[in-house]
Fold:
Amino acid sequence: MVSGNILENLNRASTYVYVIEDSEIDFEMIVRTFNRVEFFPDIHHCADGDEALEFLHSVKKNHTTYSPPSLVLLDLNLPGVDGRQILASMKSDPDLRKIPVIVLSTSNNENDIEFSLRQGADKYLKKPLSPDDFATAANTIKIFWETRIIPHG
Structure:
């Protein structure tokens, strides 16, 4: 029989990427291109803004078996609470603001880019359309992970 503590530790990833993305196709592309550039973080996925925000606040209060994510990949255009609201909520919260956020969005609108960076996003990446461009974006995220997350995590 496996003890509860061991099961809890198996469910608790100490470093993971939380991908908030409503498109299943884009999420699958992210996972495939991470593998293509040999980037293998634990990944947790959420497709809904309301659920994502609820999860982040429950993690902060230790109401879940997961630790806070080491990195959030955030789409701006989500059902329910959109990515702009999630980013603003995270960066106004003393605990959640410590979590690095990379916005990965189809929006090329200068206002979205400026808003995201002004709110505290660490990077803004335009969601690529081709697999090769996705690999370039995934490699950028991998380098960010290796230089910003791993040394401190």
In short: Confidence is low (pLDDT under 50) at residues 1-13.
